Amino acid sequence: MNIHALRLYTKVAEYQSVSKAAEVLRISQPAVTMQVRNLEKEFGFSLIKSKGRGIVLTPEGEFVYQQAQRLFDLEKDIESKISQVRNSGEGHLTISASHIPTNFLLPEWLSQYKALYPTRKVQVKTENTQQVIEQLLHYQADVAFVIEENEHHPDMNYQHLMNLEFCFIVPIGHRLAGQTVSFEELMEEPFILREEGSSTKDLLMALCKIHKTPSPKIGLELYGMTESIRTVASGFGVMLAPVIALESYFQQKQVARVNVEGVEIKRPVYACTRKNDKEVLPHAKAFLEIVRRKGLSNDRKAFDPTID
């Protein structure tokens, strides 16, 4: 494969323009066009097509663009890690995780890791599940932690760590606090929903499909689990949340569980690595060993003392 031509093509795809790409790259437009045509001959399909005064990517061209981005992200990652080793003698650990693992699981693991490797730098990026997966695939993280129910991404390895229990909560004085209701009845209440890409929101929508009910009424839509729970604790709305995040709110009698007939929710937590990596980098492998040694195959549960 002609990597130089592929690099030029990614610029064409990025700007949706041959002329703009040529301008940014400071080479002639015919030279860029020729390199794209050479790639098309090599691949055996068209990458771009004309549209008005510009171009658009074909479906095949979009696929090549996405794969090329990952290739050049890997190149940047290699350069960054070489620079780290040159400057400090050891690599950095970059972790990407969704909100629940970051807030309720990672602190204990990171504490153990830093006790063993005090000089290693660690960066944690917190995003929703969809963004975490993208960061790992684009070499912006060495390892990722997600709560996942949907079909696994084909380019990632998933190692099951534990199951987390989820439940529905309302403010402590709510009429449904401590009650057992049908799923349909609960969906009539105003809900606090997470942002698009949140695995918790995806779970709630999946439950609606299973129970053949309309999507819940949206009272608020918030980015982040903690912000959503605090809003319920302040007196508004219903939400689906992991029990591990609710312990202090239950103890302080700020929120209460709502039991739903026939619904018991447990979701798996996974450690993720890239499938196309021949082996996990040493610093990431060391961190994963700590996670495994903590015996995280057991479910994590919490109790609700507000309900007798």
From TrEMBL:
SUPFAM superfamilies: Periplasmic binding protein-like II, Winged helix' DNA-binding domain. It holds the Pfam family LysR_substrate. It comes from the Bacteria. Coiled coil: none annotated. Keywords: DNA-binding, Transcription, Transcription regulation. Residues 1-58 form the HTH lysR-type domain. Belongs to the LysR transcriptional regulatory family. This is LysR family transcriptional regulator. It comes from Siminovitchia sediminis.
